[in-house]
Structures
1.
Amino acid sequence: MRSWDNWQLKGKLGQGGFGEVLHWLNSNTGQQIATKHIKDVSSLGADQQVKLKERWMKELEWTRSIQKLTNIVAGVCLKNEDASFVAYLNKNHICQLPVIILEYCNGGDVRQLLQRPENANGLAEFEVRQILRDLAQALQFLHSECKVCHRDLKPDNIVIHRQTDGSKTYKLTDFGLARGAPDQTILQSMVGTRHYFAPEVVDTGMYNTAVDYWSLGIIAYELATGEVPFIPHQTPRNILVNLLKKTPDCIAITEDPQDANRFLFQTELPNEHHLTEPWAKEFTMWLRLALDTDYKRRGQLASDEVHSGFVPLVFSTLDSLLQIRVLTIFAVNCFKRLEYVVTKDMTMQDLKALICQDTNIAKDDVYFVLPTYHPYETIKPTTKPLDLYVEKWSDTSRETRKSTEIPPPPVMLFVFQATENCVYDVCKPRVSKLILICNVSSFQTDKPWLLKRLALDMHYMLMQQQKDLEMFLTGFRELALLVEHEIVTNQFIAAINDAILTTSDAYKMLQKLRTAAVEEKKFSIQVNDNDWKLLVNTYQETNASAIHIKERFESVLSGTREILKTTSRLLNRYVESDVFGLAAFERDSLGGISLAHFRKAVKLFITTSSDEEKLVKTESKPCDKLNLLFIKTKGAMRTAMMKFSEIKEQIFQLHLKMLSTAASASIGISGPSSMLLLNESMGRLTMANSMGDSSDFDSLTTNNVIDKAARLIEMLRTDMEIDSL
């Protein structure tokens, strides 16, 4: 097969036992299509070839008729000007059958997605949800609208189309084994792909649309864990025998690594997956329904209020499962990932209570940090946990993080323990039972399936350890960014410096006026020494404290910027230097690992993990202290600004008392009078000291303002804790 006229052959999209799919591009119009061809039938007998032709024509019919749903690959009818190209395709097709022309999907298929090294332990939860949502919609449409049973569901038959905005649509294809399936019909042909067809297909040969529900469950398990659930390395007979023994709550069967004659019936997912804990729990319940060996229970109907009818329970339950929203959190000091289902009725107090329960952090010590670019810049009194949930941030796949201009953060919220005596927990590796068994020197095996499973467990442990340390560093980086942002945006340093300068200016001018008044021997008439001493003491104390506050802010800002440099350097190091050897392991060992190589890798991992944990803690811990200093300094600044406001009022009142004296003292003096200079200083003080609040004085008369100021000074002095910072 070669290019024809304006149609360029771009390559092969995939192939199976008897066919292949090719990719074509029209150089004039830009249209892209996929064409499905029978490749070789020489190994088939005459009856099998007849059956193949029947199925081929049936698939051609289905693809041309199903055009209404975006989650099903549609057939394409080319225009008249492309008639010669279609004739060329059909002429070169064996068996004198028409080539099937389909819409082109540019993202490969789900099998290829699962085969990527980073997905060896299953896909990210976001991808699992998206695929199941699209696949369920396609199946519901086939079953209810088209009365079609697909009968060959598997990851290979789910293709991916990436939209221009980067989002993906998953589409069901390959209707070669599809067959009309009205409710009353029981199908009786042995079809499907091993590991994906339901037990009744083999056991009785009689089945209905519930076989697609079983295949959906198998695919779902594989998406979540990277493997099919029922001893795939065993013979078909052993698989069927054990399937017929399994109870309704069993979702997987594994072989005992220490006893080849013993099979374990698993009721829970393995720990090696990338699903959030609360969603995995509900997902497991759904798997028990989809993977029930009794097709009657598997296919039972449930009331559907939306459509005022009945739908299969497997679909309605899955729909509810896909509506669950899970808020992801990383408690940095605890080295612990937290995951909670959030609803519209949940409050921040509810969330904080859960965090305290799971981390043992005191309620008053919980400190929230939102990742950069979070839609909510700050957490306010009206904020709810549901507001913190960002759906697109659920997609933490390596592909998305690499292809997105602004990669999603690893979690939606970071939590810190804001206390002097902060406790740092150990970053615990995800060690599976199989790793513990195989790391004992007396244990020996050369079974390929076991060594491959061991490699997958080792891969998960390496990946998660690196992720945890990256989250730890990212958390501190976000904390440093938050502190820097607050200092710069709120102009704390400029504000306190401005308050120092303007108050100093007004104070010095008042002092100059007082000196002039004393020389004229008129001051005592207006202002007594106690008034002046009160002002001097308050000014000197507040000015010294404010200078200290400014220095603290400058120190925190400088320190956080150093933390930003350090954490960025360490994060880049994980990517560039492959510290845990993850990239090398994915390249060389995912297919299986010898016990000798495995035990050597475990020793290296223990050393590397310990060293890396010490490094990231040493480099990041100062950020905790800087944040505490920042929190205290903000509180001290509020107190200082109140005192500056108080000083402003004292200067203002003394200014009024000295008005006549200052005016007379300035008579005959060349240049601006002391009164005029003081008025200018007071104007600057009033404008610059906007953070202060003199509302307490607004209703007071001149006669009692000094008494009120004295009481406030005494009260505020007890709150000053600058020296203890």
2.
Amino acid sequence: MPATACMRMPAGALAGLRELAAAAAARSPPPLPPGAPRRTRCCTRPAAVAGAAPALRAPMAAMHSSGGEGDSTVSNGDAAASAARRDLPLPRDSQAALQHSISQLLDAGRPIVAAHLLAEEWAATSRCLDDEELSKRLVLALIEQVNTGAALEVLPMVTTSPEVVAAAIAAAAQRRSLQGVRALLTHAREAGASRGVAARPVWCAVIMALGALRRPHQARKAFADMRDAGAWQPGDTTTVNLLLNALAGDIALQFTRCNQLRQEGVEPDTTTINTLLKACMRARDVRRAELALRWMREDGVVPDEITYNTLIKVYSYSGDFDGVLGVWRCLGAAGFTPTPKLWGSLLLACSAAGQLEQAGIFWWEMKQLHSSSQAAEGQAGGGPSSTSVKAGSSKASGGRGQQRAGGKASSGSGVITLDNVCAMMTGCNDAGQYERALKVFEEARSLGVPLDARAFNLALRACHTPGKTLRHEQLMQAFALYDKMKSSGLQPDAYTYSTLFALCAAARQGHCALQLHTEMRKLGVQENVVALTALLKAVGSTPGPGMPQACLRIFRRMVRGPARLKPNQATYRTAIAALREAGALAEALALYQGMRRHHPADNSEFEGLTAVAAERALAAEDADLRRAVAEVCGITSAKEVDLHGMSGLEARAAVLCVLGLLQEQYAATGGVAHDATLITGRGLGSEGEPVVRQEVAALLDRLLLSLPPDALEGPNPGRIVIPRQLLCDALSRKMLGRQAAGGEQGGEPERGGSSGAGSGGADGADCGMPGGVDGGMPGGVEEQPAA
């Protein structure tokens, strides 16, 4: 069949279309007629066309079940097609009327109704759609909005040229449909559109699709089939380049096939060498890159900008900076004038290799060339010279922002571009030379280079050296850059505010960070975890009233706000440290408990937080804080507590929590109903010495709970039993001491809360037992391995 032929539908197929419309209206697919072939979504078409109309039901029913078109479009296909005909001013049997109606339906986004109309016209008049461009639009719309199977059913009713099939294959590849690509190729073979030189677009589309779908071996087979079909000639280097690009995922196969084609007489061009070098860049294969260069010299291929640029990246990604300099020397020897992209690649290579001094040399040469080019342009066009450009660039930054937005910057044709400025500043920041990065930023402004938010963000990052105290003038410099950025008409992004929040944290200026956050929300900048974590650090590091509550509000906004962000471990650590610093131990423990549900929390810092909170709860008789500690430690009863798997700090917190429970019981009933058993581990069922036993015994001794020898040296060394009478005596002494202290002071002592000042616990204070706990700090007990 010729490539542009139209297949005809039998007249009896119209009944099948009407049956399709009725079945779609009933929301159920119609039964297939006897003997009709079963089809999948992307099936191949049979040679006979008798089943074409019934086969059209499958994509229609699939479209209806997926809710793609709606009842008014799919279930009433015949009605919509008839309505479209009634609205046409042209005669019923006019080809122009059919084209006009289908074009209107495609403009309205209703390709499935257009397919109904075309099928009805085909069944009634045996007329297909002879407009190739409109046929391509219909097929592509069906692939994009329905599936490849729907397009396959329509292809016999439209002008099936190689260009239409090639466009359909490309659309199927964009949908990542390998089965659709194969089905369309099968259709092209059956329709006779895959043989001869005219079929080259079809095979090129197949090779590109298989390469995009990561099928290099199938792409190689498709190229072999293309040669067998007579669609490729030895002089067609463009198709060879497409094949090599499709084989890029297998670099060994790519080079092997390229060498075979060279031996068969194929002459590589610059694109061929660039394709090979690009694969070497991704694979970081210097050896094969040098092989490609040797082929380039043997075949007399002239390199271009892409060749040199890719070579620089090959050596840079492989960590061979000497190779980068070798490419630079080759540029000079060949008389090739470096382009802005080449300069940018050189700067990035220097940054990756830590060769900032060499980058400085390149930057100096770029400035000289940039000034010379601007001076030459000014003299040739009668415009401003380089001096006048510098003078003009010292105006308000709003003028530069307008130039950037309008794309009419005076340095648009210069050597130094925005990407080169960002590359140089990134290298300076990565090397820790922040003042040099700011100098590059100012030099770019003086040269009239249009800057965007990226350059300003890099300049903001350079305003502070990490690990050093932020000076007041550095913070003012950052705010000045922020004001210039806004006055230039540039929109700050989340990275801008993250950097500013970090600077406020280094300067302990949480109030400024809160004001910036308010402005961030007014501008509609989308929040992310990094920005809000930096904000938490800034607010938490600032002393003053209301800061702990502000930290909690920020954290709750992150979790429950519009963005519904998921805090990472750094976020939890920052918020917990801020609340602990402010003395809000109950809130810090609540966040700690949430972190344990999502992230590992075996750090001694957080175990120390639990111990400090337990001491505070025992000393201040804070029931809410004690319950928070009990929840963290998993304590539900004071009769028996298992300390297995706890470190020394966690065991300390658990013991203090148990003593707090016993203290509440004594205050309520006047006594203790049972002994307290502490399971320290490594008892009768274990080998070796107990791990936390000595720590627990030392803690009880500091609390003036002198245990009898049988309590420490009982039959089971993995348990410490505190007798009931000993607990009652200790608690009685505590009550008497409190009454005596209250009589001397003329009243009850004021109880402390979980939000008391400081995070160091009760240093030398009464921690629930006479004598208190030494130091009261979490560091009083060294970190111990788990039991």
